[in-house]
Backbone:
C-alpha cells in the first residue's frame, strides 16, 4: 500500500519537473517563470487544484513515442483569486516548447467546458512555440476545438489571456477571442507570421519584438490591452483585474468593502475646466477623484489615448468608465477610439457592469484617412454598443458635446439612465464659430457681424440649459458634487431591468 | 484707523496681509490679472479689481492701473507686499499725490535704499560696516572685467534694482564676468525695467543674516532680532530661521543698532530689513536694505509675537510704536521652508501646471509645536508661468532649534502637493542634513552639499526598518480587505499570512506580523521588532503611523504589490510580497532605463532663446550649448562632458516640453 502512495508522489514529482531542471534554468535565464510558478503567483497560495497531470500525448511518428512527459506541455486546473474561483491553463515552454498537441488541446478544452458550466473566469497563460508539428492536422484540430470553446464562452465567463512568451501562427487566435490580452515587455510576442516569413514574402526586415512585441500590440495594433514589466508584475495585476470582474454573466459585479465616503466633495473639480474652451485638461483627474480611493484599472492605456477606458469602483462596486480625453486630439472620436470604446462598452454590457461615461467631445475627427478607413462604420460600433447596452448608464458632460458625437456618447436618446451636465457643458450641433459661418453665410465678409453672430450663438447655445430645457439633460450638477451624484445615480439603478427584443444575435457593423 | 486698504500684490503675501487686515476690522481690496481671476487672494478679499493681462508688467506693476483700482474702490491705504511695486518710489509718490497712505516707508527712503550703490554710500556714512566694491555705473562688459580685476575675483555682479536672486551672477574669471554682465543686464531689464549693474567683492564662506527693523514717524526705531537665511540656491533663499544659530548677543546688538542707525539716517518708517553678510569670525558687512516687508518675516513674528503687518498698518496710520526695544525678546526658535514650484530632480527648474492635490499640514497656532503655512494657492488652482514660483511658506516653531526642526520634518512629510514638481523633498533633506542640524551653515551650503544636484534621499537602515514595518502592516490590511470581495467560495477563503518580505532601496527585510486589536508587532529576522499602529485605511494618501521607534508620516501611492512612499526627502518604491512571491520576483531581470547620456534634453517647459553650437562642433565640459527661457529666467544649458554635436533638433523660438531632445552628441 505504501508503495502505491509512494509511486503517486514520484509520478507527481516527475510531472512537476516538466522538461527538466536544465530547461527550467534556461526559462529563468530568459527572465521567464515556469508554468507552475506562474500559476502559483496567479492564484491564492495553496488553492490550485490540478487536472490531467498525467495526460501524455499519443503521437507515434518521428520517434515521439519514446518521449511522453506527463502533462504534455500544459498545466491546467482551478483555484481561487482572493477566494473567488477561476479556471486556469498555463503552457509549459520546457516541455516540447509548450507546443500544442491534440492532448494538450484536450486539457485546455476540459477546463474551458468546466468554466462555462460552473460559471468561473478562464485565465490562459500562453508560452508556446505553436502547433506540435509532429502531430500535423491533429494539432490543428486541437486549436480549432479551443477556438470553438473560446467563442462559446465569450460573454458567459470572462476570459483573460496572458502572453508570457511566443504566441505565433494559429495560436494567436485563441487569445484574440478572449476579453483581455496582457503581455510582458521584452519576453513575449504575438504574430500570425513571423519575421522570417515576412522577409521571404514582403522583403521587410523586422525583429520579432518590432513585429509583435508588447509595445507594438499596446500602442499600434491594439491587440493587447496592457503590458507589464515582468511575469511577477503581470500576474499580480491580472489578480487585481479579476477583483473587478464578475465570475460569469449570471452574477452582478463584485462588491468590496470600501474606505471612501460616497458623498466626498472635491472642490478642486470646480476649476478643472479651463477658462479657455480650447485649453486641454486631464480627464483622468476627474476619474481619480470620482472613483473609490482613486483606484482606476485602465484598459488599453497606450492606444487611442483620446478616449479612456477602464474600471473603477463606486461604493465598492465595479463600474466601467469611458471618457473622452481632451489632452489628446482634443478628445475627438475617430476610428481607433470608437473601436476601443465600443469593445469596452460591450464587455461591460455582457457582464452587467454599469457604465459611467464622461463626455468632452468636439466631434468626429475629419479627413480622408478617417473616411477611407471607414470611420462611418467604426464610429457606428460605439453608437451601436451604447444603444444596445442594457446595464445602468450614467453620463456626465463636462464641457463639449458637439454634433453626432454627442449622440454617440451615451446620450439620453440611447437610453442613458442619468444624463448630467456640468455648468460648463456646451451641448450643440457644433462649435459657435462653425455654426455661425453656416447659419450666417451671407455675412461672411463682415468680420464684425460674424463676431456678433458668434457671440449670440455662444450666449444661446454654449451651455447645458438648452438641452436641459428639453429634458435631454436630467440635471445640471456642480462639479464638486460629481462623486456623490454619480454614486447615488448608480445606487438608484441597482434594480434596473431592461431587455432588448429577442434576436438570434444582432448585426453590429463589424 | 483705515476703513479699507488695497493690497497691490498677489499670492501668499496678499493673503497674509488680508488676514491681518481682517483681524483689525479693515476691509480689503485685492487686485488681479487675467491669470489670477480665480486666485486665492481674490477669493479672500472683500472686493477685487481686475488690473490687466497676465504679465506683471501689464498688470501688477502698472502704477496707473493700481491707482485706478484705488479710486474705484475708495481704498485709503495700500499695502504693496514684496516685489512688484513695493520698492518703487514713483508708486509711493503717486499715492502721496492722491492722498492715499502707503503702508511702507517714505518715497525718499525707498529711493536712497532702493539703489544699491547709493544705499552703500549712505550706510558707510551712517557708520555701518560695508563690503568693498565698485559703486559707479558700469557701461559695458569690458569695463566690468576691468573693475572685477581691480576688486579681485570672485566678484558678484548684481542688478542695481534687483532682488530675489534675479539679475545676479557670481564670476570667478573674465569670461564669466562678460557672460554674467550681459545676462544680469538682460534679466534686470526684463524684470525691473532698470538695467543698471554694479559689482562687488564676493565674500566666501559667508552667512546671510538680516535684521528686522521697525520705525514709526515719531522718531522711534527698534530692531526685532535677526533672521538667518544662509540656505540659498543661486542666491534664492530656501530655508530661513530666527534667531541665527551663529550670532552671539554682542554681535546681535551691534548689528541691530547699526541697522537702526541706518534706518534713522534715511528717515525710515514702517518695517524694513537690513541684510548683512557675516563671515566665520562674525565680521558683518552691510549688503542692502529692503524697504518692504520681507518674504521670511513670519519667523520673526513667531519668535517675537509681533504681527509685522499690523505694525506696518499702524505706522502708516501715523500711530506711535507701542513697542520699545526692551519689549523685544527671543522666544523659542522658528524655521521656514519656502515651497517652490521647482523640480528638485531636474536641477530645480520651474514647474507649472494644475495643483491636482494641495493639502498643507494643519496649522497649529499655539502649544509646544506651532505650524504656520502662508500660502496663496489651493487645490485645483493653477501655477502659471507668469509669476514667482514660490507657492507657500511653511513655518514651524518650537522651544529650541531642534524642536523647530523636528516640527518642520513632520510638517513637510504631511504636506501633500501633486500635479507640479516642487521642492518639498529637498527641504526635508536639508532638515535631516547633519551639517544643517549642527548649525554650521554658509550661503554655499547647497552648492557644497549638493554639488551634483539633488537626487533624493537614501534612508538609513533604522528609518528603513520603520518604513518596512509600516508598509508590511499596511499591505496586510489591504490584502485582508481584498479577501472580503463578494462572490468568494464559502469555507475556502484566502488566508492572508503572517510572513512577508518587504523590499525597499534594494534591501529585503523578511518580517513576521502579529496583529492584534490595537496594532501589529512586526518582527525582523535579526530578532528585533517594531510595534506599529495606525488608522490608515486603503486609499488614504497620507499615512500617520505610530511606531515604537517614533512616529512616521508618509505620502502613500499604490504600486503593484506595494506602495510608493514619500517621506524625509526619499521617494521609495516599497514592495511587500509573500516569501514565495519574493523568491520568484528575485528571478526577474532588472531593466535599465534607456540611455539618454548622449542627448541634451530640455529640462523644463520653455522657449529656446539661443543655440550656441552647430552640428559638428566639438564642445568642452561646461561649455554653453543653448539658453532656455522659462518663468522669465534665462537658463544656460551646458555640456556635461566633452563631445561632438551630431544633431540639433530645436532652434531659437521653439517652445519645448520637458524631456524633448534639443540636441544629440556622437
Residues:
Amino acid at each position: 500500500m505504501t508503495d502505491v502512495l509512494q509511486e503517486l508522489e514520484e509520478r507527481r514529482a516527475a510531472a512537476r519537473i516538466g522538461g527538466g531542471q536544465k530547461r527550467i534554468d534556461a526559462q529563468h535565464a530568459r527572465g521567464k517563470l515556469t508554468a507552475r510558478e506562474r500559476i502559483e503567483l496567479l492564484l491564492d497560495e495553496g488553492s490550485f487544484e490540478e487536472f490531467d497531470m498525467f495526460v501524455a500525448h499519443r503521437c507515434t511518428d518521428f520517434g515521439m513515442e519514446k518521449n511522453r512527459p506527463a502533462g504534455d506541455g500544459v498545466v491546467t486546473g482551478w483555484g481561487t483569486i482572493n477566494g473567488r474561483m477561476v479556471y486556469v491553463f498555463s503552457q509549459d515552454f520546457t516541455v516540447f516548447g509548450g507546443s500544442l498537441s491534440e492532448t494538450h488541446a484536450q486539457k485546455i478544452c476540459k477546463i474551458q467546458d468546466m468554466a462555462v458550466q460552473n460559471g468561473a473566469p478562464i485565465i490562459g497563460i500562453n508560452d508556446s512555440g505553436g502547433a506540435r508539428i509532429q502531430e500535423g492536422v491533429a494539432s490543428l484540430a486541437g486549436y480549432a476545438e479551443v477556438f470553438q470553446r473560446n467563442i462559446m464562452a465569450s460573454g458567459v465567463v470572462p476570459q483573460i489571456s496572458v502572453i508570457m512568451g511566443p504566441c505565433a501562427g494559429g495560436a494567436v487566435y485563441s487569445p484574440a477571442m478572449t476579453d483581455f490580452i496582457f503581455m510582458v515587455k521584452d519576453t513575449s510576442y504575438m504574430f500570425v507570421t513571423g519575421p522570417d516569413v515576412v522577409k521571404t514574402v514582403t522583403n521587410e526586415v523586422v525583429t520579432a519584438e518590432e513585429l509583435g512585441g508588447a509595445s507594438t500590440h499596446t500602442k499600434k495594433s491594439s491587440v493587447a490591452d496592457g503590458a507589464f514589466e515582468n511575469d511577477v508584475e503581470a500576474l499580480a495585476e491580472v489578480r487585481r483585474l479579476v477583483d473587478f470582474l464578475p465570475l460569469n454573466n449570471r452574477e452582478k459585479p463584485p462588491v468590496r468593502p470600501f474606505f471612501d465616503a460616497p458623498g466626498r466633495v472635491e472642490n478642486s473639480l470646480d476649476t478643472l475646466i479651463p477658462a479657455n474652451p480650447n485649453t486641454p485638461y486631464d480627464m483622468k483627474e476627474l476619474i481619480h477623484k470620482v472613483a473609490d480611493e482613486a483606484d482606476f484599472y485602465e484598459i488599453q492605456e497606450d492606444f487611442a489615448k483620446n478616449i479612456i477606458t477602464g474600471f473603477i469602483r463606486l461604493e465598492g462596486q465595479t463600474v466601467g468608465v469611458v471618457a473622452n480625453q481632451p489632452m489628446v486630439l482634443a478628445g475627438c472620436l475617430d476610428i481607433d477610439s470608437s473601436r476601443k470604446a465600443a469593445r469596452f462598452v460591450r464587455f461591460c454590457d455582457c457582464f452587467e457592469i454599469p457604465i459611467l461615461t464622461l463626455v468632452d467631445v468636439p466631434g468626429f475627427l475629419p479627413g480622408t484617412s478617417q473616411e477611407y478607413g471607414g470611420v462611418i462604420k467604426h464610429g457606428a460600433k460605439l453608437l451601436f454598443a451604447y444603444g444596445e447596452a442594457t446595464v445602468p448608464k450614467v453620463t456626465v458632460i463636462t464641457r463639449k458635446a458637439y454634433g453626432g458625437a454627442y449622440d454617440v456618447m451615451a446620450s439620453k436618446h440611447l437610453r442613458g439612465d442619468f444624463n448630467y451636465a456640468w455648468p460648463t457643458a456646451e451641448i450643440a450641433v457644433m462649435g459657435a464659430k462653425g455654426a455661425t459661418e453656416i447659419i450666417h453665410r451671407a455675412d461672411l465678409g463682415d468680420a464684425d457681424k460674424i463676431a456678433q453672430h458668434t457671440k449670440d450663438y455662444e450666449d444661446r447655445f454654449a451651455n447645458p440649459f438648452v438641452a436641459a430645457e428639453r429634458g435631454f439633460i436630467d440635471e445640471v450638477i456642480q462639479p464638486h458634487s460629481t462623486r456623490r451624484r454619480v454614486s447615488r445615480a448608480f445606487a438608484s439603478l441597482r434594480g434596473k431591468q431592461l431587455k432588448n427584443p429577442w434576436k438570434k444575435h444582432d448585426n453590429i457593423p463589424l | 484707523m483705515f476703513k479699507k486698504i488695497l493690497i497691490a500684490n498677489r499670492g501668499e503675501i496678499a493673503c497674509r496681509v488680508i488676514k491681518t487686515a481682517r483681524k483689525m476690522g479693515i476691509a480689503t481690496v485685492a487686485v488681479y490679472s487675467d491669470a489670477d481671476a480665480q486666485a486665492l487672494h481674490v477669493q479672500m478679499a472683500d472686493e477685487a479689481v481686475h488690473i490687466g493681462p497676465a504679465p506683471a508688467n501689464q498688470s501688477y506693476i502698472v502704477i496707473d492701473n493700481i491707482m485706478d483700482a484705488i479710486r474705484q474702490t475708495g481704498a485709503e491705504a495700500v499695502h504693496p507686499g514684496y516685489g512688484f511695486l513695493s520698492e518703487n518710489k514713483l508708486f509711493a509718490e503717486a499715492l502721496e499725490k492722491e492722498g492715499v497712505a502707503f503702508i511702507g516707508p517714505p518715497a525718499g527712503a525707498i529711493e536712497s535704499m532702493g539703489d544699491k550703490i547709493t544705499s552703500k554710500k549712505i550706510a558707510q556714512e551712517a557708520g555701518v560696516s560695508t563690503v568693498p566694491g565698485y559703486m559707479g555705473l558700469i557701461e559695458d562688459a569690458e569695463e566690468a572685467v576691468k573693475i572685477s580685476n581691480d576688486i579681485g575675483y570672485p566678484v558678484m555682479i548684481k542688478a542695481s534694482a534687483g532682488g530675489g536672486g534675479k539679475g545676479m551672477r557670481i564670476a570667478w574669471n573674465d569670461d564669466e564676468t562678460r557672460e554674467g554682465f550681459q545676462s544680469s543686464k538682460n534679466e534686470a531689464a526684463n524684470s525691473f525695467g532698470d538695467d543698471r549693474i554694479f559689482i562687488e567683492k564676493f565674500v566666501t564662506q559667508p552667512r546671510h543674516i538680516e535684521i528686522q527693523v521697525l520705525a514709526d514717524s515719531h522718531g522711534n526705531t527698534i530692531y526685532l532680532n535677526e533672521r538667518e537665511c544662509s540656505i540659498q540656491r543661486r542666491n534664492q533663499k530656501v530655508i530661513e530661521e530666527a534667531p541665527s544659530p551663529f550670532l552671539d548677543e554682542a554681535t546681535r546688538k551691534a548689528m541691530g543698532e547699526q541697522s537702526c542707525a541706518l534706518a534713522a539716517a534715511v528717515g525710515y518708517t514702517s518695517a524694513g530689513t537690513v541684510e548683512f553678510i557675516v563671515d566665520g569670525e562674525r565680521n558683518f558687512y552691510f549688503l542692502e536694505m529692503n524697504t518692504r516687508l520681507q518674504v521670511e518675516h513670519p519667523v520673526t513674528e513667531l519668535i517675537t509675537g509681533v504681527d509685522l503687518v499690523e505694525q506696518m498698518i499702524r505706522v502708516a496710520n501715523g500711530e506711535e510704536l507701542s513697542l520699545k526695544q526692551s519689549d523685544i525678546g527671543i522666544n523659542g526658535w522658528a524655521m521656514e521652508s519656502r515651497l517652490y514650484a521647482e523640480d528638485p530632480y531636474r536641477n530645480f527648474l520651474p514647474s507649472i501646471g494644475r495643483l491636482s492635490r494641495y493639502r498643507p499640514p494643519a496649522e497649529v497656532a499655539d502649544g509646544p509645536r506651532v505650524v504656520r503655512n502662508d500660502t496663496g494657492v489651493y487645490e485645483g488652482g493653477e501655477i502659471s508661468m507668469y509669476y514667482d514660483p514660490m507657492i507657500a511658506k511653511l513655518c514651524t516653531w518650537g522651544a529650541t532649534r531642534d524642536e523647530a526642526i523636528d516640527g518642520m520634518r513632520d510638517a513637510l512629510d504631511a504636506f501633500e502637493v501633486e500635479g507640479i514638481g516642487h521642492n518639498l523633498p529637498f527641504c526635508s533633506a536639508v532638515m535631516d542634513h547633519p551639517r544643517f542640524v549642527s548649525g554650521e551653515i554658509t550661503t554655499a551650503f547647497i552648492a557644497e552639499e549638493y554639488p551634483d544636484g539633488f537626487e533624493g534621499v537614501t534612508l538609513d537602515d533604522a528609518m528603513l526598518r520603520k518604513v518596512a514595518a509600516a508598509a508590511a502592516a499596511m499591505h496586510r490590511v489591504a490584502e485582508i480587505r481584498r479577501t472580503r470581495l463578494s462572490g468568494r467560495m464559502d469555507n475556502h477563503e484566502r488566508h492572508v499570512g503572517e510572513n512577508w518580505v518587504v523590499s525597499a532601496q534594494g534591501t529585503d527585510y523578511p518580517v513576521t506580523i502579529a496583529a492584534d486589536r490595537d496594532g501589529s508587532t512586526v518582527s525582523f529576522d535579526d530578532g528585533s521588532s517594531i510595534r506599529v499602529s495606525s488608522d490608515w485605511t486603503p486609499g488614504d494618501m497620507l499615512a500617520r503611523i505610530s511606531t515604537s521607534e517614533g512616529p512616521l508620516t508618509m505620502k502613500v501611492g499604490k504600486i503593484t504589490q506595494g506602495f510608493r512612499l514619500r517621506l524625509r526627502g526619499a521617494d521609495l518604491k516599497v514592495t511587500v510580497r509573500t516569501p514565495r512571491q519574493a523568491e520568484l520576483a528575485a528571478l526577474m531581470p532588472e531593466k535599465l532605463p534607456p540611455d539618454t547620456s548622449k542627448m541634451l534634453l530640455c529640462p523644463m517647459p520653455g522657449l529656446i532663446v539661443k543655440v550656441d553650437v552647430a552640428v559638428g562642433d566639438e564642445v568642452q565640459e561646461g561649455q554653453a550649448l543653448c539658453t532656455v527661457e522659462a518663468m522669465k529666467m534665462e537658463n544656460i544649458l551646458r555640456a556635461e562632458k566633452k563631445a561632438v554635436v551630431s544633431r540639433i533638433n530645436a532652434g531659437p523660438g521653439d517652445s519645448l516640453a520637458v524631456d524633448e531632445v534639443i540636441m544629440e552628441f556622437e
Observations:
- The first strand of chain B starts at residue 4 and ends at 7.
- The two ends of chain B are 70 Å apart (CA to CA).
